[in-house]
Amino acid sequence: DTVLWWLRRDLRLEDNPALRLALNGDRRVVPVFILDPTLMARPAEKRQAFLFAGLRALDADLRDRGSRLVVREGPPVEVLAHLSAESGASAVYAEEDISPYARRRDAQAAAALTLRLVTGATVFPAGQVRKADGSPYTVFTPYSKAWKALPFPGAPQPAPARLPAVPDALTSLPIPTTPAPADFPAGEAEANRRLGAFLDERIAAYADTRDRMDLEGTSALSPYLRFGMLSARKAAWAALESARLAPHPQARRGAETWLNELIWREFYHAILYAFPFVMQTAFNPGLRGVPWRNAPAELEAWQQGRTGYPVVDAAMRQLAATGWMHNRARMIVASFLTKDLLINWQAGERWFMRNLVDGDPAANNGGWQWAAGTGTDAAPYFRIFNPSLQSAKFDPQGVYIRRWLPELARASLAGLHDPNHLTPGERRAANYPPPIVDHAAARERALRLYRPT
Ligand code: FAD
C-alpha cells in the first residue's frame, strides 16, 4: 500500500505524528511538498527563503534514511490527485493547520481524496482546551491553567531510522536555492542545536532576561516552530523537564515562564481556530470603530525605521536586517503604530507578515490585536507604551539601539532613550530625523479617540 505524506508546516522527521501515522503498517510513504501558487504569491521573501532552505535540509535528512522529498507545484488538490494516480496512493496524511486558508484548502482536499489530518503544530488540538461548557477560552490565564491541567501527551517520538524508498518514476521539481536568512540556518538539526543551547545556557535565567532587548535571553526558536522544524510538543516537553529538574527556584521559574510563552502560542492558535474572523476585524466588537488615521508618510517612516524614536527605529531596522524582532521590541513598535500614530493595526500586521521569518497568522494577529487593545484582553485599550521608558527599562545601556542604529552610536544615552534629549548637533551628525509625533500629545489623542462603544 502506498500513501502520500503531505508536508506543510511540519518539516521534521522527529516527533512527527503525520509521518508516524502514514508509516503505520509498513506502508510505502511518499513525502510531498507542494509549492502552492496562492501561498507563494504572498510577499514574504525572507520567510520563503527560510522555507526553501528548510526543504533542502529535509530532503537531505530523508535521503539519509533512504527516502526523498517530492516537490510539485500547483493548486494542492489537483497536485495531490495527480500524484495519487501516479503513485497509486490510497490516502494522504498531513498535520492539521488551522489558518482559515489552510482549513478551506484541506476541506477541498478532503472532499476529493482520503485525507487524514493529525494534530502536531500544537501540543493539543486547537479546539481541545475549552471551558467545561465546551466554549472556547477568550482570556489567556484561565486557558493556560486548563492547558496545564490536561495530561501531557507523552514524550516526543524519535525520528524513524529508515524510511521506504520513493519510486524513481516520481519526479520532483528542484528546490529553489535561495540561501536562508543569515541568522536562521534552516532545518531540524539546527533547531535541535538551538534548543539544546537554550536549555543548557539560557532557560534558567529566562524569567529575568526575556524582556531585555540587549541580551540574547530568548530561544530565537520561533521560525523553527513556525515551520515545524522543531516539534511544539518537544519544546513543551523540554520546558516541563527543565522545570522538574531545575537545580534552584530561579531556574524553575525560567522554565515555567518559557512554557508559558509556548502556551501563548497555543492560545493564539486556539483563538484563530475558534474565531477565524480575527483575520478580518477586531476580536473586540466594541473597538471596531476606532477612527484610524490614513497617514501613508507616517506608516512609511515606521516601516523604514525613521520615526525619530530610536527604540522604535532600532527595532524596525532589526526586522529589516534579520527578519526577526525581539518580543519586547514587537510590543513597543506595535503600540507606537497603533497608539502614537493611530494607524490601523492591520497595516502593522501586514508589514510583519511580509518581513518576519517566523510570521505566523495566529501569533502575529494575536500579538497585533493585543498591542492595539482590540484583542482578547479585558480592557487594555488605554495601555499606551511610553517608548522612552520602555527603552530605558529594557535596553538600559542603549546596546540594542546602538547595534541597530549605528548612526546614533555616539549619541548620549539620554538621547538614545528620549529623542527630546538628542541635540540638534547629534541629530545632524547622524542624519537622524526629529520625532514624527510628540508622544505626550499622541497619547492624549489616542485616549480621546480610542473609545470602546
Ligand atoms: P521565546 O521567548 O524563546 O519563546 C518561545 C516560543 O514561544 C517562541 O519561539 C514562540 O513560538 C512562542 N511565543 C513566545 N511569545 C509568544 C507570544 N506572545 N505569542 C505567541 N507565541 C509566542 N510570534 C511568532 O511566532 N510569529 C509571529 O508572527 C509573531 N508576531 C508577533 C507580533 C506582535 C505585534 C507581537 C507583540 C508578538 C508577535 N509574536 C510572534 C510573538 C513573539 O514576539 C515571538 O514569538 C518571539 O519574539 C519569538 O522569539 P523567541 O523564539 O526567542 O521566543
Automatic annotation (TrEMBL):
PANTHER family: CRYPTOCHROME, CRYPTOCHROME CIRCADIAN CLOCK 5 ISOFORM X1. GO terms for biological process: photoreactive repair; response to light stimulus. FAD binds at residues 206, 218-222, 258, 261-268, 358-360. This is Deoxyribodipyrimidine photo-lyase. InterPro entries: Crypto/Photolyase_FAD-like_sf, Crypto/Photolyase_N_sf, Cryptochr/Photolyase_FAD-bd, Cryptochrome/DNA_photolyase_1, DNA_photolyase_1_CS_C, DNA_photolyase_N, Rossmann-like_a/b/a_fold. PROSITE patterns: DNA_PHOTOLYASES_1_1, DNA_PHOTOLYASES_1_2, PHR_CRY_ALPHA_BETA. Keywords: Chromophore, FAD, Flavoprotein, Lyase. It catalyses: cyclobutadipyrimidine (in DNA) = 2 pyrimidine residues (in DNA). GO terms for molecular function: deoxyribodipyrimidine photo-lyase activity; DNA binding; FAD binding. The record marks W292, W345, W368 as: Electron transfer via tryptophanyl radical. Binds 1 FAD per subunit. The lineage of its organism: Bacteria, Bacillati, Chloroflexota, Anaerolineae, Anaerolineales. It comes from the Bacteria. Its EC number is 4.1.99.3. It comes from Levilinea saccharolytica. Residues 1-123 form the Photolyase/cryptochrome alpha/beta domain.
